[in-house]
């Protein structure tokens, strides 16, 4: 394997591992902050115990999120140095701003929250978790603006052989980045909702602390219900934007080959393994693809045949990931809605037994979504501006083999420890 | 002063803040296996860094991020050029970070031993590697005309680089011992103080030798010869180091810590100023060096980033100072019994 492929695999591994922890951090921080706010405003000790119990799981998760995040910032320089030099003017500044305005707050105040239960007034302590929640999500905004630049470069001019900043306002109001944010944050809160519902269901089935876990369940359910709908809505608008800005990605998501107006969507469809058309294509619904992409049944949708072969993303992976994400995305509001109907007689809720097993599903959906976003952008590292193959550092293969093997080993071990601790403390229940 | 120069100084200042702040918790981690005699003392060390280390480490992220934003070409050359060393640094920092969170989560001696080892390696290695990296930058790295550096890990471990690494370990150990003396009481306090007192002459001799070696091995002193006023920075570092000792002798720990902070910041800035206008001097051909002129971002980026930095850095320093004040008390048994403690 060459340096390019190894670097891509290493970056994918590092990003995906980091991203096991990020969504729960974003979502759970908000839900814990809400629990603690209720404690401060009502004085009800149950809410304090809730903030502590879910907060403990939050912290175990948070620790790995932070330490694996550092790797990502460094990897742009270590493995993608040509990319870093080429777009550092814009991309680097977004990362630096993220660190100064968000990451500092998050990392400083998380410690205040952990060590401050007895040292700060309840209000000040509650304030600390809100800072953490807001800063984490703000951090996500800057990162997604940076990613948005890779999907849809704006606000730059080509000068001195690189992309230089031309309009900062355009960069921070980049529609693509903002829409990713509007899709990602609800997904994170929904995931936290299912996480809470799953663990609460496990305890409710065992009749542990029923009052505590019924209340927790309802908070998780509310979050899952509201935000699973918002994820879908955000996803639709995000898809419209993709159709406009990244037609090749959209065509790969749908395995859509012929450019046509009134483009149909096929209920049964499967790209060929050689990525040169569809193996199966049956049961068309006329105009549906045009409608979903452009909100107009007669709109023209570009097909892959009209995109030069060297500019096409991998079709099969993009297509399957997209199907997986949408399929799961449909399931979530249904499950949350059903839970809502049974909210006052949870012991009769038929899905209660399955909820603990459903915790991985939102994770899988989010991973599938990011696969669509990132694989669908290939072969570009910055859409239309720089190819991934031109971005990689001039390294010796042995160096990348060493880092990749070590990284995989350490991450695998830490992942196992983390899951073990999460399960241990989730089962233990509140103190 | 040009925008590039301002950014160069800010770049140096960010590294100095990082070394001062993370320096003491890396130093305490390095001391952990040697100074802690029992479980209570070990936990005291973890909790002495507890509320601070995470916020401290963000200064590294920021220093890295600012290199990326303000001098992208230098960031690209440095991080890809020192590839293996940087990954070792990352792995070490990852293991240290999780050791805080994981160590006390399972009540089992061998479990704790694993994380204590990770904590030690994750503290000692970064101190050593950062010193090696900076000494090599001072010395110059083999950058070619394309800004590519084909230096492996072994070439970084040259005598001058290693000397820099050892000096960093000594500086951080002394700094960490003083912090531990501030945060602990009783027996541990006395031992931490004794370690600081014993490390001090090593730091003095090490610094003198390092400066002498630097004058032979690097071009750093050229800028000082051209403008002798700059020697004030070096004088500050030396005075900082000297005043550590009397403060330790009279038991004024906060004064000792501040002096040691001035020393560490002074050593960092001494090196950075010596580099000017290069961020990464090439030892193959000075014309191939990464300087603030050929590696800087566009003026617009530098201006916007300067605005962000001028507003945000003081705010960050202010709330971090508040956190330091809130948690500056000595670690007591009550703190260790606190459920959320490490």
From TrEMBL, chain A:
Matches recorded under Pfam families: Cyt_bd_oxida_I
One GO CC annotation: plasma membrane
MF terms in GO: electron transfer activity; heme binding; metal ion binding; oxidoreductase activity, acting on diphenols and related substances as donors, oxygen as acceptor
GO BP terms in the entry: aerobic electron transport chain
Compartments, record wording: Cell inner membrane
Presence of keyword Cell membrane: yes
Domain of life: Bacteria
Membrane topology reported for the UniProt record: Multi-pass membrane protein
Residues forming coiled coils: none
Main location class: membrane
Ranges annotated as spanning the membrane: 12-33, 53-70, 90-115, 127-150, 184-205, 217-237, 320-342, 354-372, 400-421
Keywords noted in UniProt: Cell inner membrane, Cell membrane, Electron transport, Heme, Iron, Membrane, Metal-binding, Transmembrane, Transmembrane helix, Transport
Name of the molecule in the record: Cytochrome bd ubiquinol oxidase subunit I
Organism: Desulfovibrio ferrophilus
From TrEMBL, chain B:
Any Gene Ontology biological process: aerobic electron transport chain
Residues annotated as transmembrane: 6-36, 81-99, 120-141, 161-182, 194-216, 228-248, 260-280, 300-322
Subcellular location per the Swiss-Prot or TrEMBL entry: Cell membrane
This protein's UniProt keywords: Cell membrane, Electron transport, Heme, Iron, Membrane, Metal-binding, Transmembrane, Transmembrane helix, Transport
InterPro entries per UniProt: Cyt-d_oxidase_su2 (IPR003317)
Highest rank taxon of the organism: Bacteria
Any one of the GO CC terms: plasma membrane
MF terms in GO: electron transfer activity; metal ion binding; oxidoreductase activity, acting on diphenols and related substances as donors, oxygen as acceptor
Protein name: Cytochrome d ubiquinol oxidase subunit II
């Amino acid at each position: 394997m060459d340096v390019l492929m190894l670097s891509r695999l290493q970056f994918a591994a590092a990003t995906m591992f980091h991203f096991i922890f990020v969504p729960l951090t974003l979502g759970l921080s908000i839900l814990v902050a809400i629990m603690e706010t209720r404690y401060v405003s009502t004085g009800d000790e149950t809410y304090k115990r809730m903030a502590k119990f879910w907060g403990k799981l939050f912290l175990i998760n948070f620790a790995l999120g932070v330490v694996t995040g550092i790797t990502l910032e460094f990897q742009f320089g270590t493995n993608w140095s040509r990319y870093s030099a080429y777009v550092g003017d814009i991309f680097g500044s977004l990362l630096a701003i993220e660190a100064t305005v968000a990451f500092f707050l998050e990392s400083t105040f998380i410690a205040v929250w952990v060590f401050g239960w007895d040292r700060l007034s309840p209000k000040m302590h509650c304030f600390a978790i809100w800072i953490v929640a807001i800063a984490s999500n703000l951090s996500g905004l800057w990162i997604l603006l940076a990613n948005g630049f890779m999907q849809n470069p704006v606000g730059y001019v080509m000068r001195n052989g690189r992309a230089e900043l031309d309009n900062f306002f355009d960069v921070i109001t980049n529609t693509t980045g903002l829409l990713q944010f509007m899709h990602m944050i609800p997904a994170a809160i929904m995931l936290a909702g299912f996480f809470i519902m799953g663990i609460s269901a496990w305890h409710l089935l065992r009749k542990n602390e029923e009052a505590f876990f019924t209340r927790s369940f309802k908070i998780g359910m509310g979050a899952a219900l509201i935000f699973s709908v918002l994820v879908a809505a955000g996803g639709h608008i995000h898809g419209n934007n993709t159709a406009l800005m990244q037609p090749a990605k959209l065509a790969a998501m749908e395995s859509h080959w012929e450019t046509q107006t009134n483009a149909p969507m096929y209920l049964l469809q499967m790209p060929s393994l050689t990525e040169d058309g569809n193996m199966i294509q049956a049961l068309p619904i006329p105009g549906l693809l045009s409608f979903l992409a452009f909100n107009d049944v007669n709109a023209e949708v570009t097909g892959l045949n009209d995109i030069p072969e060297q500019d096409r993303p991998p079709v099969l992976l993009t297509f399957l990931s997209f199907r997986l994400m949408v399929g799961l995305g449909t399931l979530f509001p249904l499950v949350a809605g059903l839970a809502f109907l049974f909210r006052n007689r949870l012991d009769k809720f038929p899905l209660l037994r399955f909820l603990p097993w459903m915790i991985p599903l939102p994770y899988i959906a989010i991973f599938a979504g990011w696969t669509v976003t990132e694989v669908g952008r290939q072969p570009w590292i910055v859409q239309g501006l720089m190819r991934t193959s031109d971005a990689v550092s001039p390294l010796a293969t042995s160096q990348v083999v060493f880092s990749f093997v070590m990284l995989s080993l350490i991450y695998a071990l830490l992942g196992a420890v983390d899951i073990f601790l999460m399960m241990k403390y989730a089962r233990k229940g509140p103190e | 002063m040009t925008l590039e120069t301002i950014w160069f100084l800010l770049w140096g200042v960010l590294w100095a803040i990082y070394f001062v702040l993370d320096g003491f918790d890396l130093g305490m981690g390095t001391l952990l296996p040697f100074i802690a005699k029992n479980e209570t003392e070990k936990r005291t060390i973890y909790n002495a860094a507890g509320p601070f280390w995470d916020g401290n480490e963000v200064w590294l992220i920021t220093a890295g991020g600012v290199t990326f934003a303000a001098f992208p070409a230098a960031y690209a050359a440095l991080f890809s050029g020192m590839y293996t060393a940087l990954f070792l640094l990352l792995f070490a920092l990852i293991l240290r970070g999780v050791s805080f969170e994981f160590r006390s989560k399972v009540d089992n001696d061998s479990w704790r031993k694993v994380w204590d080892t990770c904590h030690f390696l994750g503290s000692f290695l970064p101190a050593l590697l950062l010193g090696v990296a900076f000494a090599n930058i001072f010395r110059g790295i083999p950058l070619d005309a394309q800004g590519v550096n084909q230096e492996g890990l072994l070439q970084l471990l040259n005598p001058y680089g290693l000397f820099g690494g050892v000096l960093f370990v000594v500086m951080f150990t002394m700094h960490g011992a003083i912090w531990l003396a501030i945060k602990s009481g009783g027996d541990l306090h006395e031992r931490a103080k004794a370690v600081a007192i014993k490390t001090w002459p090593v730091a003095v001799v090490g610094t003198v030798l390092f400066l002498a070696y630097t004058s032979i091995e690097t071009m750093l002193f050229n800028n000082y010869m051209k403008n002798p006023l700059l020697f004030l920075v070096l004088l500050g570092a030396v005075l900082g180091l000297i005043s550590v000792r009397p403060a330790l002798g009279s038991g004024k720990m906060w004064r000792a810590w501040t002096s040691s902070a001035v020393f560490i910041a002074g050593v960092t800035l001494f090196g950075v100023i010596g580099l000017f206008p290069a961020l990464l001097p090439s030892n193959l051909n000075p014309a191939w060096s990464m300087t603030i002129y050929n590696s800087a971002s566009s003026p617009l980026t530098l201006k916007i980033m300067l605005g962000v930095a001028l507003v945000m850095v003081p705010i960050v320093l202010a709330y971090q100072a508040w956190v330091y004040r809130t948690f500056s008390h000595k670690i007591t048994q009550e703190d260790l019994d606190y459920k959320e403690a490490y």
